[in-house]
Write a structure and sequence with these properties.
single chain, elongated, mainly alpha, binds protoporphyrin IX containing FE, 197 residues, 0% strand, 9 helices
Length: 197
C-alpha cells in the first residue's frame, strides 16, 4: 500500500469523523432544545460533550492528509483544493473560539439550575440561535466540500457554488429547526407554571 493510498484512507476516516459528529450533534441538538427538565438537559449536554472531540480530530485529519494528497498527486492551484483548504483552516479554530463558550454557558446554567422544569435562563442558553445555525451551516458547507472533492471541478465557479449554496441551505435549515423546537417546548416560566398547576 503506497503512502498516497494510506493518506486517502485516513482522509476518508476524517470525513467519517466529521459527518458522524455532525449527525450526532443534529440529534443531540433536537433532544436538548426539546428537553422538558433540567436533568434531561444535563444528560444531553453530557452526550454533546463526548461527541465534540470528533470535530477537531476529523478536521486535523482532513487537513494533514489533504495537504499530503494535494502535494503528492495534485496541484495546490486547483480551485477545489484551495477552497477545501481555506474552509477547513477557517473552521478549525471556530469550535474552541465560538462554540465552546456557548456550550460552557449551557453547562453552567444547567449546573446551577434546580432539578425540575427548565428555567428561562437555561432555556435561553440552550436555544442560542448562533450555536444551532452555525452547526447546520457548517454541515451544509461540508456536504459542498464532499461534492467538490469527488467531482474536482476545474474552475472557481464549480468549486465555490455548491459549498456556498449548501452552507446557505444549512443556515436556513438550522433556523427552521429552532422555530420548530421553540414552538414544541414551552418557555421556562411557562413550564414551571404548568408544573405547579
Ligand atoms: C470537509 C472537508 C473535506 C472533505 C469532506 C473531503 C472529502 C474528500 C473525499 C471524499 C475525497 C475522495 C475523492 C475521490 O477519491 O474521488 C477527497 C479527496 C481529496 N481531498 Fe479532500 N476533503 C476535505 C478536505 C480537504 C482538504 C482541506 C484538502 C487539501 C488540503 C483536501 C484535498 C484532497 C485531495 C488532494 C484529494 C484527492 C485524492 C484523490 O482523489 O486521489 N481535502 N476529499
Amino acid at each position: 500500500m503506497s503512502g498516497y493510498s494510506t493518506s486517502l484512507f485516513l482522509h476518508l476516516v476524517g470525513v467519517v469523523c466529521l459527518f458522524t459528529a455532525s449527525l450526532m450533534m443534529h440529534f443531540v441538538g433536537t433532544r436538548l432544545r426539546r428537553a422538558a427538565t433540567v436533568q434531561e438537559v444535563r444528560m444531553w449536554l453530557g452526550f454533546a460533550r463526548s461527541t465534540q472531540p470528533l470535530f477537531p480530530i476529523g478536521g486535523v485529519l482532513l487537513l494533514l492528509t489533504g495537504l499530503h494528497l494535494a502535494g503528492a498527486g495534485w496541484d495546490f492551484r486547483q480551485p477545489w483544493i484551495l477552497v477545501g483548504l481555506v474552509i477547513v483552516i477557517a473552521l478549525l479554530p471556530a469550535g474552541p473560539l465560538l462554540l465552546r463558550p456557548r456550550f460552557m454557558a449551557m453547562g453552567m446554567a444547567a449546573g446551577s439550575a434546580e432539578p425540575g422544569p427548565v428555567p428561562a435562563a437555561l432555556s435561553s442558553a440552550v436555544m442560542n440561535p448562533f450555536v444551532w445555525k452555525y452547526l447546520s451551516t457548517m454541515t451544509g458547507a461540508a456536504f459542498g466540500l464532499l461534492w467538490i472533492m469527488t467531482q474536482k471541478p476545474a474552475g472557481w465557479l464549480g468549486a465555490l457554488v455548491l459549498p456556498i449554496a449548501l452552507a446557505l441551505v444549512g443556515w436556513l435549515y438550522g433556523a427552521s429547526l429552532l422555530r420548530r423546537d421553540s414552538r414544541a417546548v414551552p418557555s421556562g416560566e411557562a413550564a414551571v407554571a404548568s408544573a405547579k398547576r
